[in-house]
Design goal:
Number of domains of chain B: 3
CATH architecture of the largest domain in chain B: 3-Layer(aba) Sandwich
Oligomer: heterodimer
Number of helices of chain B: 15
CATH topology of the largest domain in chain A: FAD/NAD(P)-binding domain
Mean pLDDT of chain B: 76
CATH architecture of the largest domain in chain A: 3-Layer(bba) Sandwich
Number of strands of chain B: 14
Distance between the termini of chain B: 36 Å
CATH superfamily of the largest domain in chain A: FAD/NAD(P)-binding domain
Structural class of chain A: alpha+beta
CATH class of the largest domain in chain B: Alpha Beta
Shape of chain A: globular
Chain lengths: ~625, ~475
């Protein structure tokens, strides 16, 4: 056996999960290998050319706040930004950007290649090597071995990937790449349970053959936004997207050919995501809708390829040609790459601990699509956590586990490891029960300290964070301390500034809660310190939504009590007679780390939790 | 449901249902003393919180809403850690009857106490170190057994009508929640905007439904426990007089309860702690007033519904075919045969009655002279306590739980309306709507977050 190298950690796959895992592990100081089956496709975006959106944009901010890379590189390369949900509350406002795919990839490749402690290599890993249920290395298709103590599997859609276009299918990864056909076997042999999922993507069409005059233009926001708390980009060239619609003609063609759809003729076995249905699925499931909207989005500034968002399909090529031409503005369309569906193996995430380490294989972590999720952002978030926790394991430190009340990342991972998933999992704000606390604007306040503790947040980021945090505290304190009385003088000043009179004495903090009052006005009237927008915004949001925020805080405190009751790893559920059989089975399978987590498992009732609580107390007393 | 705290304040009725000179409500938890103080006024006006442990304090419990005295009570005060649970405990001893107990409990629940789970006092006693290790197994057995029993009871108890009402309300709320969530999570995917005015109307609709349900369950008089009791008999045998007699009794508490079927009216009589739900009292009165012929068919439907039948016959007249038809219906039923008009000469063939209805007790009564009422009550009590007709803790607990959940749901909905009124962003309004939806789900046992997400995908065409 030829040992080609030795590492602390090997990351399999250099997509959005893999790069974050590799960078995080290396930055924390572990000798890390990032293995990809194609060096030209690091951080590939094989589907939509965009980053962010509700919940996803939150994830990008959280990754950034912890010291991840996605936000910084997106800010440097994205070609259009929009803040969504601006008419709604601060918790659900979300940033979405159009990416320049190739430029993003190049920059991420550069970032990885120049990261200290990180080696990037083109390798197709075929086997994971273990001894006594602990990781010892990986073996490449050409036979050589890299030894390591931890593996982060970030294999995306490449595990036994199969591409489907109409009646044609072939083994492979996205966009004409190889697939990892052998690794699944090795995983199974090591006791890893696999599932089969499916996803799909629309055609890419030639910009020169489109008639944009028949579409609505969608420009980016005038105001400049950034994902990263470290970015200070203030101007940016933006490229528009275009909106058009399907029509009855399009639908008729799809209906007439529905028997040729791979999902209808049984070619596709994998489970696809409901939130990302193919156009043929949309037409079957919502027959009453007379049109579906489509966004035509640039894939980058150096290419004529345009992405037809909303038109994901695996119909045969002739049908794709026919129906695309019925769409307003696409009458003369030339397809550059057809839409396709892809099936792939992924892990059942119920096998994982909240640290993303496999329960039975010491040192084996998994992240991203290989955990049954979908989306670049979901992948990056898990990659970051898996990378951090592999590094923590190497360093002999406890893993970083974020709570549901601390981060969308916490919700994402808790959902995966507690409830599992039956379709590619997408993050949504409605999955978060403490949405108001988990805002995109306060991700740094929630997480940067934690990133610092694990050793990922550098001095520069930490200084920016502490300065902002201290300023917010200082201003809030100032506003709470300063009381005004309803004197004629004060009311006159308020009225002169367009504010309502006050009738009782109140603090400036209370005044800030009123409609039409913002910090800027108070600053003018009462001579308060000038602060930057980010600080101002935090102070305002905290004041205005104080009532709701407190409500959620109370809910969190109630939940934490059970969350803090840990269940020892060696608990024997078979010993606890009084548990109902269903509950015992689920507990045995999932092996929750806390009573809080146990309570979220479907099939475990409050009475079962009571019984667990008593059993644990009994155990503690016995051992005393 | 799962977020139930392990150290909030809990309460439950500690005495078994049924006959008893006193009833006890036990309140345990950090805030138990302060909470009881909110509805208890001692004879000397000193608050419990100012008193020493292990004292018995006489005073009165007042209703939160109408400020009237519910009962004279004695409160036993036990401060932590010198109590069964090692927490602050107040035991309220009152005058037995279930109505009073329930009323006091309902008032406590409105003040932030949570209804204890099965076995929860004992569980706390163990967790707080009051009970030794050997007893832990017993605690778990209790929880398991009581939970199973109460689950069985809950599922058996929820009538189709009741749960369908709750489900209708949840469906209405889910519509709104799902629409809001779809708009929030998929802002660029052409989901129709929401008309907040319509939402407010829908919320109003749900609130008025809750209001109606609460009106029948409210102020400690509970909607659906007690023995369903039917008074049957030919016209003019004195059904209405008997009804009035039962209701006029000074121990009885009378309310108008819209029944489970909209066409009938129930009244609730508390006979020495035994709750009687007398069905179709309107029907009884109507037929008496108008001297209509009461169909045997109608008697049949009452008898089917009822757990206790009071069958009236006119002892001053001879048995006729209608009487015999009614007699035939009483076979294998819990029936008391009341031979009314005992003040007049008896013309009725009592032996024939005994032969036809061997299982039924027969009593003589005069509703005019009010004779025989005591005997009737004695017989009913005997039937209840010895023969276990109905009525047990589980059923009752269910009702308090339901009322409590309905009230909380209503208060969340009221917050949601306030939010919409003040143009609070919809994602915050949804917090209250979801809380209300979950509370209602607590009643029927269906609260699953995943439902919302499933509905988003099934109702809206979403996807890039």
């Amino acid at each position: 056996m030829f040992i080609a190298g030795s590492y602390d950690i090997v990351v399999i796959g250099a997509g959005h999960a893999g790069v974050e895992a590799g960078l995080a592990a290396a930055r924390i100081g572990c000798k890390t290998l990032l293995a990809t089956l194609n060096l030209d496709n690091i951080a590939l975006m094989p589907c939509n050319p965009s980053v962010g959106g509700p919940a996803k944009g939150h994830l990008v901010r959280e990754v950034d706040a912890l010291g991840g890379q996605m936000g910084i590189n997106a800010d440097k390369t994205c070609i259009q930004y929009r803040m969504l949900n601006t008419s709604k509350g601060p918790a659900v406002q979300a940033l979405r950007a159009q990416a320049d795919k190739k430029v993003y990839q190049l920059l991420m490749k550069q970032t990885c290649e120049n990261q200290e402690n990180l080696d990037v290599k083109q390798l197709l890993i075929e086997k994971i090597l273990t001894q006594d249920n602990a990781v010892t290395g990986v073996q490449v298709e050409t036979g050589e071995v890299y030894t390591c103590h931890c593996i982060v599997l970030a294999s995306g859609t490449y595990l036994r990937g199969r591409v489907i276009i109409g009646e044609k299918t072939y083994e492979g990864g996205p966009v004409g790449q190889r697939a990892a056909m052998e690794l699944s076997k090795s995983l199974k042999k090591n006791g890893v349970k696999l599932m089969r999922f499916k996803t799909g993507t629309p055609a890419r069409v030639d910009k020169r053959t489109l008639d944009f005059s028949k579409m609505q233009i969608q420009n980016g926001d005038d105001e400049t936004h950034n994902f990263s708390f470290m970015s200070d980009i203030s101007t940016r060239e933006q490229v528009p997207c275009w909106l058009t619609y399907t029509n009855e003609k399009t639908h008729k063609i799809l209906r007439d050919n529905i028997d040729r759809a791979p999902m209808a003729n049984g070619i596709i076995e994998g489970v696809g995501p409901r939130y990302c249905p193919s156009i043929e699925t949309k037409i079957i499931r919502f027959p009453d809708k007379d049109k579906h909207q489509l966004f035509i989005e640039p894939e980058g500034v150096h290419t004529n390829e345009m992405y037809v968002q909303g038109m994901s399909t695996s119909m045969p090529i002739d049908v794709q040609f026919e129906f695309l031409k019925t769409i307003s503005g696409l009458e003369n369309v030339e397809i550059m790459r057809p839409g396709y569906a892809i099936e792939y193996d992924c892990l059942d995430p119920l096998q994982l601990q909240p640290s993303l380490e496999h329960k039975n294989i010491n040192g084996f972590f998994s992240a991203g699509q290989s955990n049954g999720t979908s989306g670049y952002e979901e992948a990056a978030a898990q990659g970051l956590i898996a990378g951090i926790n592999a590094a923590m394991k190497i360093k002999g430190r406890p893993p970083l586990i974020l709570k549901r009340s601390e981060a969308y990342i916490g919700v994402l991972i808790d959902d995966l490891v507690t409830k599992g998933t039956e379709e590619p999992y997408r993050m949504m704000t409605s999955r978060a029960e403490y949405r108001l606390i988990l805002r995109q604007d306060n991700a740094d306040m929630r997480l940067t300290e934690k990133g610092r503790q694990v050793g990922l947040v550098d001095d520069e980021r930490y200084a920016v964070y502490t300065k902002k945090r201290d300023k917010i505290n200082e201003i809030s304190k100032l506003l709470k301390a300063k009381k005004i009385n309803p004197s004629g003088e004060i009311n006159k000043v308020l009225q002169e500034n367009g504010l309502d009179e006050i009738h009782t004495s109140l603090t400036l903090y209370d005044l800030l809660k009123r409609k039409n009052v913002d910090y800027g006005r108070l600053q003018n009237i009462f001579n308060l310190p000038v602060v930057n927008i980010a600080v101002k915004k935090q102070v305002e949001i905290n004041a205005v939504y104080e009532g709701y925020i407190n409500k959620q805080q109370e809910q969190i405190e109630r939940m934490e009590k059970l969350e803090n009751k840990k269940i020892p790893a060696d608990i024997d559920y078979k010993q606890i007679d009084n548990l109902r059989d269903e509950a015992r089975e689920k507990l045995l399978q999932i092996r929750p780390v806390s009573l809080g987590q146990a309570g979220r498992i479907s099939g475990v009732s409050p009475a079962d939790i009571s019984i667990l609580l008593i059993y644990l107390e009994q155990r503690t007393r016995r051992s005393e | 449901m799962l977020n139930k705290e392990i150290n909030d304040t809990i309460a439950a009725i500690a005495t078994p249902p049924g006959e008893g000179g006193i009833g006890i409500i036990r309140v345990s938890g950090k805030n138990s003393i302060n909470i009881v103080d909110k509805i208890f006024v001692a004879g000397d006006k000193r608050a419990l919180s100012e008193r020493h442990s292990h004292r018995a304090i006489y005073g009165k419990i007042y209703d939160l809403h109408d400020k009237k005295v519910i009962d004279e009570v004695i409160c036993l005060l036990m401060r932590e850690p010198h109590s069964y649970t090692k927490e602050n405990i107040v035991e309220v001893q009152c005058h037995g009857g279930m109505v009073v107990l329930r009323n006091i409990l309902a008032n406590l629940l409105e003040n932030g106490v949570r209804l204890a789970e099965p076995g929860e006092f004992t569980k706390r006693a163990f967790l707080n170190g009051r009970i030794d290790l050997a007893q832990a197994q017993a605690v778990m057995d209790i929880i398991r057994a009581k939970t199973e029993a109460s689950l069985k009871m809950a599922s058996g108890h929820l009538s189709g009508y009741f749960s369908s009402q709750i489900n209708q309300m949840r469906e209405l709320l889910l519509d709104v929640i799902v629409h809001y969530e779809a708009v929030i999570d998929f802002p660029e995917e052409g989901v129709d905007e929401i008309d907040n005015i319509q939402v407010m109307e829908k919320i109003g609709e749900v609130r008025s439904k809750i209001g109606n349900m609460l009106a029948s369950a409210n102020t400690g008089r509970i909607l659906r426990d007690g023995i369903v009791t039917a008074i049957v008999g030919k016209p003019n045998v004195g059904k209405s007089s008997l009804l009035n007699l039962l209701l006029r009794d000074e121990r009885a508490i009378v309310t108008d309860v819209p029944g489970t079927t909209r066409d009938s009216i129930e009244e609730y009589a508390d006979i020495d702690g035994i709750p009687l739900r007398i069905i179709d009292t309107a029907g009884i009165r109507q037929t008496e007033d108008r001297i209509e012929k009461i169909g045997v068919d109608k008697s049949l439907t009452y008898i089917k519904k009822a757990g206790l039948i009071l069958a009236l016959f006119d002892a001053s007249r001879k048995l006729d075919t209608d009487d015999q038809k009614i007699m035939a219906l009483l076979k294998n039923k819990n029936a008391v045969i009341v031979l009314n008009k005992s003040d007049l000469p008896q013309a009725f063939d009592e032996n024939c009655m005994k032969i036809n209805c061997p299982d039924s007790k027969i009593i003589h009564m005069s509703t005019v002279e009010q004779d025989g009422l005591t005997e009737l009550i004695q017989i009913i009590k005997k039937m209840v306590y010895n023969d276990n007709i109905v009525s047990n803790e589980g059923e009752f607990v269910n009702d308090v739980r339901q009322a409590d959940a309905l009230k909380k749901a209503d208060s969340h909905l009221s917050d949601a309306l306030k939010g919409l009124d003040n143009d609070i962003p919809e994602d915050l309004v949804v917090i209250d709507l979801r809380s209300a939806w979950e509370k209602l789900g607590d009643i029927t046992g269906d609260t699953v977050n995943e439902d919302i997400i499933n509905e988003i995908f099934s109702r809206f065409c979403i996807g890039k």
